[in-house]
Amino acid sequence: RNLLDRDTFSKSDPICVLYTQAIGNKEWREFGRTEVIDNTLNPDFVRKFIMDYFFEERENLRFDFYDVDSKSPNLSKHDFLGQMFCTLGEIVGSQGSRLEKSIVGIPGKKCGTVIVTAEELGCCRDSVLMQFCANKLDKKDFFGKSDPFLVFHRSNEDGSFTICHKTEVVKNTLNPVWQAFKISVRALCNGDYDRTIKVEVYDWDRDGSHDFIGEFTTSYRELSRGQSQFNVYEVINPKKKGKKKKYVNSGTVTLLSFLIETEVSFLDYIKGGTQINFTVAIDFTASNGNPSQPTSLHYMNPYQLNAYGMALRAVGEIIQDYDSDKMFPALGFGARLPPDGRVSHEFALNGNPQNPYCHGIDGVMEAYYRSLKSVQLYGPTNFAPVINHVARYAASVKDGSQYFVLLIITDGVISDMAQTKESIVNASKLPMSIIIVGVGPAEFDAMEELDGDVVRISSRGRFAERDIVQFVPFRDYIDRSGNHVLSMARLAKDVLAEIPEQFLSYMRVRGIKPSPAPPPYTPPIHVLQTQI
């Protein structure tokens, strides 16, 4: 909208070029270009960019705009109209997955705005629940009737068939009713509604030499009409049909029901406005070492982040895209606080217990450094208070509009194991997940136990309803070559990869459906544009 006008006699002819950035090096690579739209400052580009999306990775994007002056593919031959930087997460995490941002890059000029929308390609997330019965099938057994079952095949591009489902066998009947079965649309027809689906009817024999009764073909589109006269199929045996003049069919198969179930995804909730609230809790116990000493895990090195700072930034910079107000509560535990030296296991890093929120990840880092200067590292290492702190908030919004992620960074020597397990078992019923990053050289056996990947965590005989804890040791990610960018991207990926599934498991158990996304942006009608 409102692009700069660079043409003397007419309006600009804009094109948009998208660049992506590799994680390790900061080099921008061209990903693709839209079409050129002639003679307008308010283009609606049609060409879409299809990219892979991972919640746990930060994908930097750059959109460059040019006024195209000739047929040359070389961008330096055209007028630069400005650019916009964002992350894929920022677009996806915006209200309705629609981001509007100013175009920058030409000093002293207003370059207009760009509106980017993202949608998940979800053609193949549906599955279908179907039930069939048959009537008057051919009798194939010498004694008694047939034992029929159905075999479904999807057709491939080259005309061959691939088996995709077998029903159970119904014994001794020519009028079987099979149980309903569920199959993904992808498996049934590769997401192509008009592709042929071949169904064969067999009579089961104990020795495996099942007798062919007949077959029929259909398609997803036909089946989706549900129970109707269109979904009664004649079962034909081509051999019999060729031999016998009077042959009509070998029975009929009828579709009794057809129900489409759409698997909802993490992005459906984000698009519907679910917010992810991010809270940080930092271990201020004495076992970390004196912050003024280089050996301390809390050492404030002016030239480089310590392990706490690196872990916080790695995880926080990705999660912040999904939190619209970018205000993050930051807590500390295990320190003596001024003025009276009382020990606290949930204190606000910014010194304001009524309002522990910090603005953005930078605000959290600032509050962390400030606290290090004012509090005394002490002990013991208690996790339960900060877990219960977040759980209190999570317990107050169980409608699916918010989900809470607590990041605990610790040197791992935990003192309140029993209480922490109790807190985690209680929290597993709430919309929250816990990430624990262990820094330093300690044994992290207790953390592995809290992670619950091997044995589901329990407290006093009660088991956690879902797995909500993800633990990683920081030392596994320290790159010997000193390239922290790549190693921190790997750390974030590993701790965040489980969150979408943990999030979905909460929503599923509670039966919470995503809210509908707000209506898409429609440009004003009066702007008529021609597209080449």
Automatic annotation (TrEMBL):
InterPro entries: C2_dom, C2_domain_sf, C2B_Copine, Copine, Copine_C, VWF_A, vWFA_dom_sf. One of its GO terms (biological process) is cellular response to calcium ion. GO terms for molecular function: calcium-dependent phospholipid binding; metal ion binding. It comes from the Eukaryota. GO terms for cellular component: plasma membrane. SMART domains: C2 (SM00239), VWA (SM00327). Pfam families: C2, Copine. Residues 1-101, 110-233 form the C2 domain. PROSITE patterns: C2, VWFA. Residues 277-478 form the VWFA domain. Keywords: Calcium, Metal-binding, Repeat. PANTHER family: COPINE, COPINE-8. Belongs to the copine family. This is CPNE8 protein. It comes from Hylia prasina.
